[in-house]
Amino acid sequence: MRVFRCFLVLLCLGLMWTTQVPAADDYITVQELNTLHPEQVELAENFTAIIQKEGQAMRSGTQKQPVRIAFIYPGKQVSDYWRRSIESCKQRMDEIGMQYEVFEYFSKPAVEIRLQEQQMRAALKEDPDYLVFTLDAKKHQRVIERIITKGRPKLILQSITTPLRSWEGKQPFLYDGFDHATGSEILADYYIERTQAEGEYAVLYHSQGYVSVMRGDTFIQYMEKHSKLTLVASYYTDADREKSKQATLEILREHPTVKFIYACSTDIAIGAIDALRETGKLGDILVNGWGGGSAELAAIMDGDMDVTVMRMNDDNGVAMAEAIRLDLEGKGATIPTVYSGDFMLVEKGISQAELDTLKTRAFRYSGTD
What we know:
Layout: H1 2-15, H2 30-36, H3 39-52, E1 67-73, H4 81-96, E2 100-106, H5 113-125, E3 130-134, H6 138-150, E4 154-158, E5 174-177, H7 180-195, E6 200-205, H8 210-226, E7 230-236, H9 241-254, E8 260-263, H10 266-278, E9 286-287, H11 294-302, E10 307-311, H12 314-328, E11 338-340, E12 343-347, H13 352-362
Helix pairs in contact: 1-9, 3-12, 4-12, 7-8, 9-10
């Protein structure tokens, strides 16, 4: 028992909320981008129309050799978002007749930053034409800036739809994903309605970085503005299931009257559910998913998870394929700076038929199984 208590104390010290995270002001929202660069509105609309249609064959003679694409993903997690992204991108490239060679690198989110740096070096040695990466930890920014300055490979930043303000004038090739702030506000509206805008709640953050700012801080600020709900606890979890479980157990001990626990990712939500099940609180305290991948949808249908915001997942993989195609065809000027996909709110109690319809749309390339 003493060993467990020491572990819990150390864990909670490591998870306690701090202010050493990027500020939201560092980023340009999609709305602000459209104000600063009005031409982006039409570019985004036209690009979205291409993504939502079936793939059209590439122009004959476009490629003399296969295009080389490196994916460096924090994909070692319960969420299947990253796996589906690569699969949908490759299937769209097959559909339009693109010749390609792919290099894939996977790591755990938040805790394997050094491995990601090693993978970046390995990927660059392959001299890819395009490199797909993400931006969460502050260390990522310095690496990305060097690539942008060099100009090769062309950089696709995935799971980020808010351009960095400091990169104005020389942005990456494409920002691609589903807007974290939009998804978080959809979930916030759900909780406000379910709780009549009153009571206590807790937040389980990702790691100290972009995702926590955009999903966690946005949610809290929205609650402060639109409800009387009170935040009583928040923890960083590194998107780790066990850390999320332990943090939830601590929340339940210290604040047993919380109405819901807002989770910033799939693995976090599953960890919170583990704790609620262990304490007999499952069903009494609301918990959400974030993203609507297979694990979350199964939890919804099992009655363990109350709600999630579901990404139309495969559209972001299609967006990467189509941006590369347009670039190879000499139509780079028609590619928007940002592609941001659609969400649907999925609640416990949804019928199997309704869910199957959503899955068919969201996973149109990567498969509904």
